[in-house]
Amino acid sequence: MHLKIAVLGGDGIGPEVLKQSVKCLQAVAETFGHNFTFTDGLVGAAAIKKTGSPLPDATLELCKKSDAILFGAIGALEYDNDPNARVRPEQGLLKLRKELDLFANIRPVKVFPILAPKSPLKEHIIKGTDFVIYRELLGGIYFNEKKLSEDGTKASDLCEYTEGEISRIAHMAFKAAKRRRKKLTLVDKANVLETSRLWRRVVTNIGESYPEVELNCLFIDNAAIQIILDPRQFDVILTENMFGDILNDQGSVVLGSIGLLPSASVGTKNAMFEPVHGSYPQAKGKNIANPVASILSVAMLLQHFGLFEEANAVVAAILKSFQKNIVTSDVMGSSKYGTNYVGDFIAENIVDSDDNLTMNDENIWLGKSTII
Question: Could you read off the pLDDT of 200-220 as tens digits, one per residue?
């Protein structure tokens, strides 16, 4: 297979972890006889500094012409410390999602048994956790009208959804639940918000077309508690933009490190794959960032194109790095290995994988989390 892949490193540790992802895709191409071409593009603070725009036209055009996008991270301290900045790195990501119609963000939260003791939660609570969050990505409070009074003392953000926006991601989530353990949980705030009441009405109606899938509804505050108390109860979680943003990061607490969570943002034509973590500018250039979330995003990319054996080979190599303690310090507490070494080890073990690892139960988790 030939794939054209846009590589948007962005800011902070983004380029560092993405470098390891490219290594792993090159290893997959070598091992399985594929042809992947990579083209770099500017985005975020790095793009603002060079072009004045967080998403230059050239980058957007590159993404539209590519088969897939690998994304690093965006954000820089100078913008975090300046709430009045007119142009912000995050605007580049939001515009990219909108222009490419990336309406569904998909984030699997799967606990590797070997890492369960390292979670801040008790092992008996998290062992066996395997759920995926479907977050609507183009509507709600992040994308609608925003106002600030002239004197700066009053502000508002409009939360708005249409039935069509809800319906298209709801069908995607129900189909995923049908392939998995046949349970879908809608997270909303229908006791307070009119948009949530619309979500509940639309999703409940759609649920009638999927009688084999059990539909439950939870308020966001209860859902946040339940993910910590009993994450194993969840299979597929469906929710709106802001609630999904919150719950996604909670998943990192279950795993013990935000450096272990991958994601995919997909639409009808385009797909982008990125780690959940942010730019972590304090770690930039120190060779300490965990590349696993970015490399797991590579596995999701391969799965998206039906390359399931290749995706499992990537996960098997990651598992081997866990077994041999070749990890960054955020995973095991202390480690002598850096970003580049961990990335090299995983890439090398895709090329020279052990047969007994490629069939390990921990390795086939992607097959349970099919995203399309």
Answer: 999 999 999 999 999 999 999
Q: Is 245 a catalytic residue?
A: yes
Q: How confident is the model at residue 353 (pLDDT cuts 50, 70, 90)?
A: low
Candidates 23, 110, 118, 189; catalytic one: 189
In 10 A of CB 144, how many CB atoms? 13
Which one of 80, 98, 142, 183 is the catalytic residue? 142
- Segments making up each domain of the chain, as ranges: 1-104+257-372, 120-255
Tell me the Cα Rg of the chain: 20
DSSP string, 231-247: GGG-SEEEE-HHHHHHH
Does an H or E element contain 282, and which? none
* 268-323 pLDDT per residue, tens: 999 999 998 889 999 999 999 999 999 999 999 999 999 999 999 999 999 999 99
- Of the CATH numbers 1.10.260.40, 1.10.10.60, 3.40.50.2300, 3.40.718.10, which one belongs to the domain with range 120-255? 3.40.718.10
Distance CA 122, CA 349 (A): 31
Above pLDDT 90, what percent of the chain?
80
Annotated active-site residue in 65, 82, 122, 221: 221
334-351 per-position pLDDT tens digit: 678 999 999 999 999 998
221 annotated active-site: yes
142 a catalytic residue: yes
Same fold yes or no, 1-104+257-372 and 120-255: yes
**CATH architecture classification, 1-104+257-372:** 3-Layer(aba) Sandwich (3.40)
- Is 189 catalytic? The answer is yes
Structure tokens given for 228: 């910590």
Residue 22 to residue 7: CA distance in whole angstroms = 9
Instruction: Spot the catalytic one: 67, 80, 157, 245.
Output: 245
Burial 259-277 (b: 16+ CB within 10 A, else e): bbbbbbbbbeebbbbbbbb
**Integer distance in angstroms from the first to the last C-alpha of the chain?**
18
pTM metric for this prediction: 0.91
Tens digit of pLDDT for each residue in 226-262? Answer: 999 999 999 999 999 999 999 988 888 888 888 899 9
